[in-house]
Amino acid sequence: MSLNRDWESFLLNESLDDRNIFTYLQGLQEFVSNIKPRSLIEERRVQLAKEYLREGRRTARKMQNELEILQERLTILEESLNERS
Predict the structure, then answer these.
(1) What CA–CA distance (Å, rounded) separates 57 from 85?
(2) Most buried of 11, 27, 59, 69, CB within 10 angstroms?
(3) Domain of residue 40, residue span
(4) What is the 3-state secondary structure (H, E, C) of the chain?
(5) pTM for the complete prediction?
(6) How many domains does the structure of the chain reveal?
Protein backbone atom coordinates (compact mmCIF):
# COMPACT_ATOMS: atom_id res chain seq x y z
CA MET A 1 0.00 0.00 0.00
CA SER A 2 1.41 3.39 -1.01
CA LEU A 3 0.13 5.09 2.12
CA ASN A 4 2.12 2.73 4.34
CA ARG A 5 5.29 3.36 2.32
CA ASP A 6 4.74 7.14 2.48
CA TRP A 7 4.17 7.01 6.22
CA GLU A 8 7.23 4.82 6.78
CA SER A 9 9.32 7.12 4.59
CA PHE A 10 8.10 10.13 6.53
CA LEU A 11 9.06 8.56 9.84
CA LEU A 12 12.45 7.32 8.67
CA ASN A 13 13.45 10.64 7.09
CA GLU A 14 12.69 12.72 10.16
CA SER A 15 15.77 13.74 12.11
CA LEU A 16 15.62 13.06 15.84
CA ASP A 17 16.54 16.66 16.63
CA ASP A 18 13.64 18.04 14.60
CA ARG A 19 10.98 15.89 16.21
CA ASN A 20 8.52 17.50 18.55
CA ILE A 21 4.85 17.15 19.32
CA PHE A 22 3.92 19.26 16.29
CA THR A 23 5.88 16.96 13.97
CA TYR A 24 4.02 13.93 15.26
CA LEU A 25 0.65 15.68 15.03
CA GLN A 26 1.40 16.75 11.46
CA GLY A 27 2.28 13.18 10.53
CA LEU A 28 -0.92 11.91 12.08
CA GLN A 29 -2.92 14.62 10.31
CA GLU A 30 -1.47 13.55 6.96
CA PHE A 31 -2.17 9.93 7.75
CA VAL A 32 -5.79 10.59 8.76
CA SER A 33 -6.36 12.85 5.76
CA ASN A 34 -5.34 10.05 3.41
CA ILE A 35 -7.80 7.55 4.86
CA LYS A 36 -10.71 6.84 2.52
CA PRO A 37 -13.68 5.73 4.61
CA ARG A 38 -15.82 2.99 3.09
CA SER A 39 -18.80 3.38 5.34
CA LEU A 40 -20.60 6.02 7.36
CA ILE A 41 -19.17 4.57 10.58
CA GLU A 42 -15.62 4.83 9.23
CA GLU A 43 -16.30 8.38 8.04
CA ARG A 44 -17.47 9.34 11.53
CA ARG A 45 -14.37 7.78 13.04
CA VAL A 46 -12.14 9.76 10.66
CA GLN A 47 -13.99 12.98 11.54
CA LEU A 48 -13.58 12.21 15.23
CA ALA A 49 -9.85 11.57 14.72
CA LYS A 50 -9.55 14.93 12.93
CA GLU A 51 -11.32 16.67 15.82
CA TYR A 52 -8.97 15.00 18.31
CA LEU A 53 -5.97 16.14 16.26
CA ARG A 54 -7.23 19.73 16.18
CA GLU A 55 -7.74 19.63 19.93
CA GLY A 56 -4.31 18.06 20.36
CA ARG A 57 -2.69 20.82 18.32
CA ARG A 58 -4.51 23.48 20.33
CA THR A 59 -3.43 21.88 23.61
CA ALA A 60 0.15 21.47 22.40
CA ARG A 61 0.29 25.16 21.44
CA LYS A 62 -0.96 26.14 24.90
CA MET A 63 1.57 23.86 26.55
CA GLN A 64 4.38 25.25 24.35
CA ASN A 65 3.44 28.81 25.31
CA GLU A 66 3.33 27.91 29.00
CA LEU A 67 6.71 26.18 28.71
CA GLU A 68 8.26 29.27 27.13
CA ILE A 69 6.85 31.49 29.89
CA LEU A 70 8.16 29.13 32.58
CA GLN A 71 11.58 29.01 30.95
CA GLU A 72 11.71 32.80 30.88
CA ARG A 73 10.72 32.95 34.55
CA LEU A 74 13.37 30.39 35.44
CA THR A 75 16.01 32.40 33.59
CA ILE A 76 14.98 35.55 35.45
CA LEU A 77 15.08 33.72 38.80
CA GLU A 78 18.49 32.26 38.04
CA GLU A 79 19.82 35.68 37.05
CA SER A 80 18.49 37.29 40.22
CA LEU A 81 19.98 34.46 42.29
CA ASN A 82 23.37 34.98 40.62
CA GLU A 83 23.18 38.72 41.27
CA ARG A 84 22.60 38.14 44.99
CA SER A 85 25.59 35.83 45.27
Answers:
(1) 42
(2) 27
(3) 2-84
(4) CHHHHHHHHHHHHCCHHHCCHHHHHHHHHHHHHCCCCCCHHHHHHHHHHHHHHHHHHHHHHHHHHHHHHHHHHHHHHHHHHHHHC
(5) 0.68
(6) 1
